[in-house]
Specification:
This protein has four helices and 19 strands. It is mostly beta strands and 294 residues long. It has a 19-stranded mixed beta sheet that branches. The protein is globular, with a radius of gyration of 19 Å. It starts with a strand and ends in an 8-residue tail after the last strand.
Length: 294
Protein backbone atom coordinates (compact mmCIF):
# COMPACT_ATOMS: atom_id res chain seq x y z
CA UNK A 1 0.00 0.00 0.00
CA UNK A 2 1.32 3.43 -0.98
CA UNK A 3 0.26 6.41 1.14
CA UNK A 4 1.00 10.15 1.11
CA UNK A 5 2.42 11.83 4.21
CA UNK A 6 3.77 15.14 5.47
CA UNK A 7 6.81 15.36 7.75
CA UNK A 8 6.53 18.17 10.33
CA UNK A 9 8.31 19.32 13.48
CA UNK A 10 7.53 21.52 16.45
CA UNK A 11 10.59 22.54 18.49
CA UNK A 12 12.38 19.48 17.15
CA UNK A 13 9.63 17.05 18.18
CA UNK A 14 9.01 15.44 14.78
CA UNK A 15 5.92 13.88 13.26
CA UNK A 16 4.53 12.04 10.28
CA UNK A 17 1.11 13.55 9.52
CA UNK A 18 -1.54 11.50 7.66
CA UNK A 19 -4.68 12.93 6.07
CA UNK A 20 -7.61 10.55 6.58
CA UNK A 21 -10.33 13.14 6.04
CA UNK A 22 -11.45 11.38 2.83
CA UNK A 23 -10.72 7.74 3.61
CA UNK A 24 -9.04 5.57 6.23
CA UNK A 25 -5.78 3.82 5.49
CA UNK A 26 -6.58 1.04 7.96
CA UNK A 27 -3.13 1.02 9.57
CA UNK A 28 -2.26 -1.10 12.59
CA UNK A 29 0.44 -0.85 15.24
CA UNK A 30 3.09 -2.47 13.03
CA UNK A 31 2.42 0.02 10.22
CA UNK A 32 2.71 2.98 12.61
CA UNK A 33 5.98 1.57 13.94
CA UNK A 34 7.25 1.23 10.37
CA UNK A 35 6.41 4.85 9.56
CA UNK A 36 8.17 6.05 12.71
CA UNK A 37 11.28 3.92 12.11
CA UNK A 38 14.23 6.22 11.32
CA UNK A 39 16.06 3.55 9.31
CA UNK A 40 13.34 1.79 7.31
CA UNK A 41 10.42 4.26 7.40
CA UNK A 42 10.07 8.04 7.41
CA UNK A 43 11.19 8.57 11.00
CA UNK A 44 9.21 10.35 13.71
CA UNK A 45 8.49 10.59 17.41
CA UNK A 46 4.75 10.27 16.75
CA UNK A 47 2.32 9.63 13.90
CA UNK A 48 -0.52 12.19 13.73
CA UNK A 49 -3.72 11.40 11.85
CA UNK A 50 -6.27 14.00 10.70
CA UNK A 51 -9.84 12.69 10.58
CA UNK A 52 -13.21 14.37 9.94
CA UNK A 53 -15.27 15.96 12.70
CA UNK A 54 -16.71 13.31 15.02
CA UNK A 55 -19.39 15.59 16.53
CA UNK A 56 -21.14 18.96 16.16
CA UNK A 57 -18.98 21.90 17.27
CA UNK A 58 -15.76 19.99 16.53
CA UNK A 59 -13.69 20.71 13.42
CA UNK A 60 -11.49 17.62 13.27
CA UNK A 61 -10.48 14.46 15.12
CA UNK A 62 -6.79 14.21 16.00
CA UNK A 63 -5.39 10.69 16.51
CA UNK A 64 -1.88 10.15 17.90
CA UNK A 65 0.30 7.04 17.79
CA UNK A 66 3.69 6.88 19.47
CA UNK A 67 6.75 5.45 17.75
CA UNK A 68 6.03 2.09 19.42
CA UNK A 69 2.68 1.93 17.61
CA UNK A 70 0.51 2.56 20.67
CA UNK A 71 -2.30 5.12 20.51
CA UNK A 72 -2.01 7.85 23.14
CA UNK A 73 -4.24 10.56 24.51
CA UNK A 74 -2.46 13.80 23.74
CA UNK A 75 0.56 15.47 22.13
CA UNK A 76 1.03 19.21 22.53
CA UNK A 77 3.76 19.84 19.95
CA UNK A 78 1.79 17.64 17.58
CA UNK A 79 -1.31 19.76 18.17
CA UNK A 80 0.50 22.81 16.81
CA UNK A 81 1.65 20.87 13.75
CA UNK A 82 -1.87 19.51 13.32
CA UNK A 83 -3.27 23.05 13.21
CA UNK A 84 -0.62 24.21 10.75
CA UNK A 85 -1.26 21.14 8.54
CA UNK A 86 -5.03 21.58 8.24
CA UNK A 87 -4.72 25.31 7.57
CA UNK A 88 -1.85 25.13 5.07
CA UNK A 89 -3.46 22.11 3.37
CA UNK A 90 -6.71 23.97 2.77
CA UNK A 91 -8.75 21.69 5.01
CA UNK A 92 -9.98 24.76 6.92
CA UNK A 93 -9.82 28.53 6.65
CA UNK A 94 -10.30 29.06 10.37
CA UNK A 95 -7.60 30.64 12.49
CA UNK A 96 -8.91 28.85 15.58
CA UNK A 97 -10.07 25.25 15.44
CA UNK A 98 -11.63 22.81 17.88
CA UNK A 99 -10.06 19.37 17.79
CA UNK A 100 -11.16 16.15 19.47
CA UNK A 101 -8.37 14.01 20.90
CA UNK A 102 -8.51 10.85 22.94
CA UNK A 103 -7.62 13.04 25.95
CA UNK A 104 -10.34 15.67 25.33
CA UNK A 105 -11.02 18.74 23.18
CA UNK A 106 -8.20 21.22 22.49
CA UNK A 107 -8.27 24.57 20.68
CA UNK A 108 -5.22 25.52 18.58
CA UNK A 109 -5.02 29.11 17.30
CA UNK A 110 -2.65 30.25 14.53
CA UNK A 111 -0.96 33.52 15.51
CA UNK A 112 0.17 36.33 13.15
CA UNK A 113 3.86 35.59 13.82
CA UNK A 114 3.53 32.06 12.42
CA UNK A 115 3.48 30.29 15.75
CA UNK A 116 0.52 28.34 17.14
CA UNK A 117 -1.10 28.76 20.54
CA UNK A 118 -2.95 25.77 21.92
CA UNK A 119 -5.50 25.76 24.73
CA UNK A 120 -4.44 22.46 26.28
CA UNK A 121 -7.28 22.36 28.79
CA UNK A 122 -7.04 22.36 32.56
CA UNK A 123 -4.52 20.06 34.24
CA UNK A 124 -5.87 17.04 36.10
CA UNK A 125 -4.66 16.31 39.64
CA UNK A 126 -7.06 13.57 40.78
CA UNK A 127 -4.89 10.49 41.12
CA UNK A 128 -7.47 8.07 39.69
CA UNK A 129 -7.82 10.16 36.53
CA UNK A 130 -4.09 10.45 35.83
CA UNK A 131 -4.00 7.43 36.58
CA UNK A 132 -1.57 7.05 39.52
CA UNK A 133 -1.90 4.28 42.10
CA UNK A 134 0.65 4.71 44.92
CA UNK A 135 -1.15 2.38 47.31
CA UNK A 136 -0.09 3.08 50.90
CA UNK A 137 2.97 5.15 49.95
CA UNK A 138 2.42 8.63 51.46
CA UNK A 139 2.97 11.89 49.61
CA UNK A 140 5.48 14.46 50.86
CA UNK A 141 4.36 18.08 51.23
CA UNK A 142 6.20 20.64 49.10
CA UNK A 143 5.01 24.23 48.83
CA UNK A 144 1.23 24.19 48.60
CA UNK A 145 1.29 20.83 46.86
CA UNK A 146 3.01 17.47 47.14
CA UNK A 147 5.57 15.15 45.65
CA UNK A 148 5.59 11.38 45.60
CA UNK A 149 8.62 9.15 46.23
CA UNK A 150 9.29 6.55 43.54
CA UNK A 151 11.70 3.71 44.24
CA UNK A 152 13.68 2.81 41.12
CA UNK A 153 15.60 -0.44 40.73
CA UNK A 154 18.90 1.05 39.58
CA UNK A 155 22.04 -1.15 39.27
CA UNK A 156 23.68 -1.92 42.60
CA UNK A 157 21.06 -0.26 44.77
CA UNK A 158 17.59 1.23 44.66
CA UNK A 159 17.22 4.96 44.03
CA UNK A 160 14.36 7.10 45.30
CA UNK A 161 13.25 10.07 43.19
CA UNK A 162 10.49 12.52 44.07
CA UNK A 163 7.99 13.47 41.40
CA UNK A 164 5.01 15.76 41.02
CA UNK A 165 2.21 13.86 39.30
CA UNK A 166 -0.52 15.23 37.02
CA UNK A 167 -2.22 14.75 33.66
CA UNK A 168 -2.35 17.06 30.67
CA UNK A 169 -4.62 14.63 28.87
CA UNK A 170 -1.76 12.17 29.29
CA UNK A 171 0.14 11.24 32.47
CA UNK A 172 3.28 13.07 33.62
CA UNK A 173 5.78 12.65 36.46
CA UNK A 174 7.94 15.76 36.89
CA UNK A 175 11.08 15.82 39.02
CA UNK A 176 13.33 18.73 39.89
CA UNK A 177 17.02 18.47 38.99
CA UNK A 178 19.96 20.77 39.63
CA UNK A 179 21.55 20.32 36.20
CA UNK A 180 19.26 19.07 33.45
CA UNK A 181 22.14 18.67 30.99
CA UNK A 182 23.61 15.94 33.18
CA UNK A 183 20.36 14.47 34.50
CA UNK A 184 20.14 10.64 34.20
CA UNK A 185 17.32 10.78 31.67
CA UNK A 186 18.37 7.68 29.74
CA UNK A 187 18.77 5.66 32.97
CA UNK A 188 15.81 6.86 35.04
CA UNK A 189 13.41 7.66 32.19
CA UNK A 190 12.40 4.09 31.28
CA UNK A 191 12.25 3.07 34.95
CA UNK A 192 9.81 5.89 35.69
CA UNK A 193 7.84 5.27 32.48
CA UNK A 194 7.21 1.65 33.49
CA UNK A 195 6.91 2.18 37.25
CA UNK A 196 4.05 0.06 38.67
CA UNK A 197 2.40 3.13 40.22
CA UNK A 198 1.47 4.21 36.66
CA UNK A 199 -0.87 1.58 35.17
CA UNK A 200 -0.86 3.32 31.75
CA UNK A 201 2.85 4.16 31.93
CA UNK A 202 3.96 7.81 32.21
CA UNK A 203 6.01 10.58 30.62
CA UNK A 204 9.04 11.40 32.79
CA UNK A 205 10.04 15.07 33.00
CA UNK A 206 13.36 16.41 34.32
CA UNK A 207 13.11 20.14 35.09
CA UNK A 208 15.81 22.62 36.11
CA UNK A 209 14.41 25.90 37.45
CA UNK A 210 16.63 28.81 36.41
CA UNK A 211 14.41 31.56 37.78
CA UNK A 212 10.69 32.12 38.27
CA UNK A 213 10.12 32.64 34.53
CA UNK A 214 12.69 30.32 32.95
CA UNK A 215 13.18 26.56 33.12
CA UNK A 216 15.16 23.98 31.19
CA UNK A 217 13.43 20.68 30.49
CA UNK A 218 14.10 17.20 29.16
CA UNK A 219 11.36 14.61 28.80
CA UNK A 220 11.52 10.85 28.38
CA UNK A 221 8.28 10.26 26.53
CA UNK A 222 6.12 7.20 27.00
CA UNK A 223 6.55 4.93 24.00
CA UNK A 224 9.08 7.21 22.26
CA UNK A 225 12.06 7.72 24.58
CA UNK A 226 13.71 11.10 25.02
CA UNK A 227 12.58 13.64 22.43
CA UNK A 228 13.91 17.08 21.55
CA UNK A 229 10.77 18.64 23.03
CA UNK A 230 7.47 17.57 24.57
CA UNK A 231 4.57 20.01 24.56
CA UNK A 232 2.42 18.36 27.19
CA UNK A 233 5.61 17.75 29.19
CA UNK A 234 6.37 21.48 29.12
CA UNK A 235 2.82 22.24 30.27
CA UNK A 236 3.02 19.66 33.05
CA UNK A 237 6.43 20.93 34.22
CA UNK A 238 5.25 24.54 34.45
CA UNK A 239 2.04 23.59 36.26
CA UNK A 240 4.06 21.51 38.70
CA UNK A 241 6.53 24.34 39.26
CA UNK A 242 3.72 26.82 39.91
CA UNK A 243 1.97 24.53 42.36
CA UNK A 244 5.26 23.85 44.14
CA UNK A 245 5.71 27.62 44.57
CA UNK A 246 8.73 27.88 42.28
CA UNK A 247 7.39 29.58 39.15
CA UNK A 248 5.27 32.53 38.02
CA UNK A 249 2.18 32.23 35.82
CA UNK A 250 4.07 32.70 32.53
CA UNK A 251 7.21 30.68 31.90
CA UNK A 252 9.62 30.10 29.01
CA UNK A 253 10.55 26.43 28.70
CA UNK A 254 13.90 25.78 27.04
CA UNK A 255 14.18 22.34 25.42
CA UNK A 256 16.83 20.79 23.20
CA UNK A 257 14.58 21.55 20.22
CA UNK A 258 13.63 25.14 20.99
CA UNK A 259 11.55 27.46 23.13
CA UNK A 260 7.96 26.91 24.30
CA UNK A 261 5.97 29.61 26.11
CA UNK A 262 3.60 28.26 28.75
CA UNK A 263 1.00 30.18 30.75
CA UNK A 264 -1.32 28.95 33.52
CA UNK A 265 -3.52 31.17 35.68
CA UNK A 266 -4.15 28.56 38.36
CA UNK A 267 -6.92 26.29 39.61
CA UNK A 268 -9.49 25.42 36.96
CA UNK A 269 -7.80 27.49 34.25
CA UNK A 270 -6.55 25.97 30.99
CA UNK A 271 -2.86 25.77 30.19
CA UNK A 272 -1.87 27.85 27.15
CA UNK A 273 1.11 26.72 25.08
CA UNK A 274 2.71 28.75 22.27
CA UNK A 275 5.45 27.54 19.96
CA UNK A 276 6.56 26.84 16.38
CA UNK A 277 5.13 24.38 13.86
CA UNK A 278 7.01 23.74 10.62
CA UNK A 279 6.52 21.56 7.56
CA UNK A 280 9.75 19.74 6.67
CA UNK A 281 8.77 17.85 3.50
CA UNK A 282 6.00 15.86 1.82
CA UNK A 283 6.17 12.49 0.15
CA UNK A 284 4.72 9.04 -0.43
CA UNK A 285 5.83 5.75 1.04
CA UNK A 286 5.12 2.10 0.37
CA UNK A 287 3.88 0.20 3.42
CA UNK A 288 5.16 -3.41 3.13
CA UNK A 289 2.46 -6.07 2.93
CA UNK A 290 4.36 -8.52 5.11
CA UNK A 291 4.42 -6.51 8.33
CA UNK A 292 2.90 -8.32 11.35
CA UNK A 293 -0.67 -7.42 12.25
CA UNK A 294 0.09 -6.53 15.88
Amino acid sequence: MRIPFTKMQGAGNDFVVLDETQNRFGLGAAQYRFLADRHFGVGADQILTVRPSPAPGIDFEYVIHNADGAEVEQCGNGARCFARFVRDGGLTQKGAIRVQTRGGVIEPVLTPDGRVTVNMGAPVFELARIPFTPGLVPAESCGDWQQWPLRLATPGHDTVVRVAVLSMGNPHAVQLVDDVANAPVAQYGPLIEHHPFFPNRVNAGFMQVQNRRQVRLRVYERGAGETLACGTGACAAVVAGIRLGLLDAQVDVHTHGGLLAIAWAGDGAPVMMTGPATTVFQGEINIPDDLPKA
